[in-house]
């Protein structure tokens, strides 16, 4: 294979890693297992004629970008409600959304379609729903020690003006080189259910969770689990520090004899917004070493489905765990759980993310998963890539809705703003205040009342009341600026959102220092 014909990237920042010192990931599947090949995939998913139907265009207010949703045509009808809800939510977030139904095509025709959307509509990102064309890349000798490797590569759809080369085995359907301007122009997220279950059932449930998250009913504590197995313990403190840029509250585990599958199962039961897992893996599971590295045990991918852990986002530093062409691949199982799971980053090959700061910092600044993923990839490719960087990173992919924000969305507040009623029956006494405020409410007989407090990012921090009042009454609630866990909230501006007998009201509160 010809090498990448671009300048070697020179590390120059505090957060850069010396790749040569970091132990490589390894395929950890049972003896005799291997990843599905391009030839096996294309036999089951042959290319057919490309067809595209514009489903709808929904316009935002211009404050956010233009985005595209591309849905496999054969399942689009069954997903209409879920996709329409997603589009409506994106419009509330100020995006203009172009929604298409896609059937057939090759990677090249799909990339050309994206190029046209980028050049003519200035899209910033896209979501692939269902089985859309998969691009493959091959390396003659992976890391100069693993031998021949081939893998799906979504960077092909992100970098729209670079040149992708097929020089090693010309015409075999796999690329092997990448030159020119190799920075990504857009981000891409995938929702692909390969071998996990009935696609429409899983996707409908995913959209249900997606909507719940945006409306703050699937939010989990802003905390991260960092679980690092033996080979990378020397790097674990720095990597945990990178995660803490997004979530300062981190639970860290990297002891050589206690990072076991049984402990991982237990820690997954603790509600946390983010899981950063570092372990040798394969699409079917994670392998954890113990007994001075002489023994190992396994957390299987199907356990994500069975356990349904209370976590919404994952960064899997795990060999081939996001290889969405393999049946039952673990990255997909993590996001297609019944109750939780919304987004994951991982690799389709023996590789992973490094330089984590450049991913977590944009997320901490309230960027979306897609924007942060693109920012990270741009950092990797901005001065060209070395062969090591290609081997580590070219399999990286984003699974899930790329417009999700791990910091939260607050659409409940936006919805209140759209439907505010006049003549509010709520009176707030002591606003602004350092210690407490009093809510006085005039309630009609048999009225349902819901009163919640949101922070400036739209995250619900306090439920004050949610009940039905049977008799006419003047109702009074005293709030001491505490959250649902009883912790004192910092000074700042908060939104009071009330719904009384079906009418919505909103006001601002100021908590003084």
TrEMBL record:
InterPro entries: Gingipain_N_sf (IPR029031). Gene3D superfamilies: 2.60.40.4070, Gingipain r, domain 1 (3.40.50.10390). It comes from the Bacteria. This is T9SS type A sorting domain-containing protein. It comes from candidate division WOR-3 bacterium.
């Amino acid at each position: 294979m010809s090498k990448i014909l671009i300048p070697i990237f020179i590390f120059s920042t505090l957060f850069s890693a010396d790749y040569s010192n970091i132990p490589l990931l390894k395929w950890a599947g049972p003896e005799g297992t291997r990843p599905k090949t391009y030839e096996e995939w294309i036999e089951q998913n042959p290319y057919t004629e490309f067809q595209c139907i514009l489903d709808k265009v929904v316009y935002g207010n211009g404050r956010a970008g233009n985005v595209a949703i591309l849905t496999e045509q054969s399942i689009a009808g069954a997903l209409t409600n879920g996709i329409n809800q997603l589009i409506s939510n994106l419009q509330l977030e100020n995006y203009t959304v172009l929604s298409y139904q896609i059937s057939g095509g090759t990677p090249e025709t799909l990339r050309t379609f994206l190029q046209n959307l980028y050049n003519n509509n200035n899209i910033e990102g896209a979501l692939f729903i269902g089985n859309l064309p998969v691009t493959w890349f091959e390396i003659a000798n992976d890391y100069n020690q693993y031998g021949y490797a081939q893998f799906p590569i979504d960077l092909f759809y992100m970098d729209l003006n670079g040149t992708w080369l097929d020089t090693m085995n010309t015409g075999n359907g796999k690329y092997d080189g990448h030159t020119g301007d190799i920075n990504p122009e857009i981000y891409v997220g995938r929702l692909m259910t390969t071998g996990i279950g009935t696609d429409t059932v899983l996707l409908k449930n995913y959209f249900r969770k997606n909507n719940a998250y945006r409306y703050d009913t699937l939010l989990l504590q802003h905390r991260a689990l960092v679980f690092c197995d033996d080979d990378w313990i020397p790097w674990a403190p720095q990597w945990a520090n990178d995660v803490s840029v997004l979530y300062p509250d981190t639970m860290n585990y990297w002891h050589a004899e206690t990072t076991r599958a049984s402990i991982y199962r237990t820690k997954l039961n603790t509600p946390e917004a983010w899981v950063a897992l570092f372990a040798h893996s394969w699409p079917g599971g994670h392998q954890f070493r113990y007994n001075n590295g002489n023994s190992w045990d396994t957390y299987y991918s199907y356990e994500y489905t069975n356990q349904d852990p209370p976590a919404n986002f994952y960064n899997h530093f795990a060999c081939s765990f996001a290889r969405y062409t393999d049946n039952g691949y673990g990255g997909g199982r993590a996001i297609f759980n019944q109750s939780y799971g919304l987004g994951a980053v991982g690799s389709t090959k023996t590789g992973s993310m490094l330089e984590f700061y450049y991913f977590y910092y944009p997320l901490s600044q309230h960027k979306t998963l897609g924007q942060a993923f693109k920012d990270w990839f741009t950092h990797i490719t901005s001065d060209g890539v070395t062969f090591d960087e290609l081997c580590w990173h070219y399999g990286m992919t984003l699974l899930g809705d790329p417009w999700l924000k791990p910091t939260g969305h607050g659409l409940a507040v936006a919805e209140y703003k759209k439907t505010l009623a006049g003549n509010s029956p709520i009176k707030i006494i002591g606003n602004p205040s350092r210690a407490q405020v009093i809510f006085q409410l005039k309630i009609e007989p048999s009225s349902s009342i819901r009163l919640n407090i949101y922070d400036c990012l739209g995250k619900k921090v306090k439920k004050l009341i949610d009940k039905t009042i049977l008799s006419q009454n003047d109702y009074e609630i005293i709030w001491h600026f505490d959250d649902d866990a009883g912790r004192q909230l910092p000074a700042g501006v908060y939104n009071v959102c009330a719904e009384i007998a079906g009418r919505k009201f909103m006001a601002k509160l100021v908590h003084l220092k």
